Amino acid sequence: MGDSFSGPLLRTPLHALHAELGAKLVPFAGYDMPVQYPAGILREHLHVREKAGLFDVSHMGQALFEGADAIAALETLVPGDVAALGDGQMRYTMLTDDKAGILDDLMVTRLSADRLFLVVNAGCKDDDYAHMQAKIGSRAKLTRREDRALLALQGPAAASVLARIVPEVAAMKFMSAIETRFEGIDALITRSGYTGEDGYEISVPNESAVLVARRLLSQPEILAIGLGARDSLRLEAGLCLYGHDIDTNTTPIEATLAWTISKRRRAEGGFPGAAIVQAQLAGGTARKRVGIKPDGRAPAREGTEIVDENGTRIGTVTSGGFGPSVEAPVAMGYVATAAAKVGTRVGLVVRGNTLPATVASMPFAPHRYFKA
Amino acid sequence: MADLRFTKDHEWVRLDGDVATVGITAFAQDQLGDVVFVELPAVGKKVEQGKDAAVVESVKAASEVYAPLDGEVTETNDALTGDPALVNADPTGAAWFFKMRVTNKAQLDGLLDQAAYDSYVKGLA
User: Fold this and answer.
1) End-to-end CA distance of chain A
2) For chain B, which domains are there?
3) Is residue A267 part of a domain?
4) Per-residue pLDDT tens for A85-142?
5) Helices and strands (H, E) in chain A, number of each type
6) How many domains does chain A have?
7) For A116, phi and psi rounded to 5 degrees?
8) Beta carbons of A232 and B61 less than 8 Å apart
9) Which structural domain, as residue segments, surrounds residue A344?
10) Nearest chain B residue (CA) to A43
11) pTM of the model
């Protein structure tokens, strides 16, 4: 995960457009990706919260998971309730291992009873597909959709802007999908995202990606947004970043993702690490993922040690930075469960100094998802 | 006013008598992006050439600001604490970080002049 990939960098179909727009390109998960455009992370972030922004997330893994047994087969890999999805509904879940560690987090969309659409993290996709294929064998057919680009349109103006071009998106429920046309281009559109705002993710054929991106960028409300603002937006929204806030050493329960596991799946299990998840649901965990707000202005970055009022180490920051909408530093991390209650006073060891901070509820910036 | 000298770590320094004013370059602020936090040294702190003296943080990351010369901090620019974005707006002017009494002026000769720094930065692009 991240930028440790070696070898030639891959390019998304929008690479040349990013360069044309003046993006600063950096290696991310093996791709040469825009971290910011000339507006800069701060303005890009605020623009998404105020109007709407367009993100290239084509590096992420898109795949189809098909067959009469696809739903049941996928449930052997994830704790999410895939069977409860109706056509065109989607949910967030994770691939777990036998220790209930998180191999990746993903979006699962039911297109029809025998056809699921998956979106996984760029840095995990090769491992994810190998893992799924090995576990599933011939129970379902896994098809990588490397022929598809993925664009995220996020922000309060996203719906009105996209509805100018694809009117039916206005009526979509949050966490739903439609297979439609974007000015004649085959498009799979979900109302979802990674910013805490209303918005869409738009999957289109690679060869049409530039056209779709330009069409959206030509709308007055829309600004191109890089991965830098994507990270600060998701952090303010309290959303996990794989490889940082969740990984194989964290379980969904420690990560406070129990809300993604339905009553039926908790009771029935049947996914890797189910016994551990069930035991943690019943008996609790030694540590939990929490939000943290420093009292002062100094951001606490990933890896920052969290201490209690006696200076004893109780945890570690897993994501931290400055929240442009919160106008203050924000962080998330894992702390001993005894210190996980909102309002608990903690210390953050930044450059040798212990800075006062408080365990805070997340999201830091309120979610503004669309409610029909 | 004396000319600016530069380090390869993208600090600038202006020596006036034995007091040096220190900041980060326009190139540095552009690379960092929007500055959201600045940590300044305590007045009286002894600093060494090439060692940590201050911290500047953008939305994305934290970076050290190194002392360009040996000496002792005599004054800090508290305007930066309240308005870190000043570093982006006026890096070589209003957004100076600290002033220091220099103990080894000869070190200045080892720093880059404007032309040498410009060509050094060009090589980084």
Assistant:
1) 36
2) 4-124 (2.40.50.100)
3) no
4) 999 999 999 999 999 999 999 999 999 999 999 999 999 999 999 999 999 999 999 9
5) 9, 19
6) 2
7) -115, 145
8) no
9) 286-366
10) B34
11) 0.95
